[in-house]
């Protein structure tokens, strides 16, 4: 298989370094649980690094503190001799498996001159792009020298600890990024105005590191060629910046697209794999050193194509290595079906942006505390029954099987996947996860799958399992309002039931024919792509749709209906539409609704009745109105579903309840709980 990925596995020189392949991890600060309160790496962090080096990544970049930080998100300290022992431990964890380790001197917006002053936001000026990011203090020339000295000192510490280089952060709206950009640099001294002047600060930092560490010590740089902020740099501006950075002595151009203040989607699942490689291709036209493309690079076939077409020299990313620490080795060995490919749910980014540690991923539960315990065979295998084949049940079944248990996985529908079956309609990347699970089930001999099987206490009693893990999903929350039984009312679970071959019973001849016919057809020919294409039909959604429930299910449905030219109103009792949508997606989802003339958003609204005229509702100011809907979609989310669990209490030796049936949350929560349940057996 390696011959099919000749570009991905061709070694490359980056300055004085030789990388074993073209896959690197861009900088990340995994936060709490990985770094102690006194800013040292924990064993969790060391295990995380070692797993990924052993998994074949050529170079791992990790954020480090180059000054005494006060920020809530902890980083390993790297600015004093007393930090050498823990930094050496990090380097050893990576080097023992042939990987390389560089440290990114992290200063996003925040920086600190000295320990006598608090940390604050700094830049070339006090210009703010967004009200929530800032205010900014204008750096003096003395500040600029201090910053460069601090980074150079960090380089010396990393070099002494055996790290392989240092990377400057000059992108995503950080301190150096703001100097490079026309949007925020309005200085009239030698650090502002011309391209050369705007590059001067970054160049001086590079030169300071070179003077401190020697010319051979690699100084890398991550910067944003296109800012995607008002009046910011565009690609032609970036091409003028390249020669100055190279003249300073950087060893690569690691490209980060946009700023944290950008209003366009950058990393979300609506951006296809490889999309941002056009920026790297433009930079390569003027660059003389390697160019790293990043953001939305998660598919090895796309990665190889990008390299083969000469658009970039290296592939960078964080989420693909979070999702699967063995990604490079699996590609090299031809085990593509075994890759836990990132589904771009952005849960990892949301957690870290909120100041939490890296613990949740929808496809990889082995993060955080789980990294301390290997998956090893048990002394005495058990007979395990897993009820429900959604993400939680699948994670439980596969983990239990890896530990040697004899597992039977039960699914009441005709196919495995549970909620993934329907979620993949709205999020095509989720199909990666269903494909992965199906491949693993077929390759795991101690898992038996039973489809179209409803588990009852009687079945459990007859099977005599030693452990039962219940992962049957939550109950859909029903709307309590007059008219909810009308034929033009559709619940989210109606579709899942139809996909499972059990059509809902709706009044009206057309409904009976279509729901029953659809159930038979999709039972035989279902695919998420097919269902997406069928949503353009005039049934079951008419031209005007009232979506009752503005959480994640309602927002996903709304986005899909917009793609099929429907008009809609989204009604939600809470104050915000998209209240439970992940932070990485929420702004873009809600913004799309706000900008569309076909969407009427009605937060803080109570539905009063559904009538032939439409949906009658009351707003917060007590005014009442009717939305003239042809179809009413009820997407109020889920609530606990403990019926089977309650009936099995005391009836089996071990009973575990996981996922939405126990506590409705996001997919990563179910995956983690399934894994933990299996590890506890």
TrEMBL record:
Q: Which residues form a coiled coil?
A: none
Q: Fetch the InterPro entries from UniProt.
A: Aldolase_TIM, FAD/NAD-bd_sf, FAD/NAD-binding_dom, NADH:flavin_oxidoreductase, OxRdtase_FMN_N
Q: Does the keyword Metal-binding apply?
A: yes
Residues annotated as domain FAD/NAD(P)-binding: 382-648
Which Pfam families does this entry report, sorted A to Z? Oxidored_FMN, Pyr_redox_2
Q: Where is the NADH:flavin oxidoreductase/NADH oxidase N-terminal domain?
A: 8-335
- CDD domains noted in UniProt: OYE_like_FMN_family
Name the cofactor(s).
[4Fe-4S] cluster; FMN
Q: Name one GO molecular function term.
A: FMN binding
Do you know which PANTHER family this protein is assigned to? Answer: 2,4-DIENOYL-COA REDUCTASE, 2,4-DIENOYL-COA REDUCTASE [(2E)-ENOYL-COA-PRODUCING]
State the protein's name.
NADH:flavin oxidoreductase/NADH oxidase
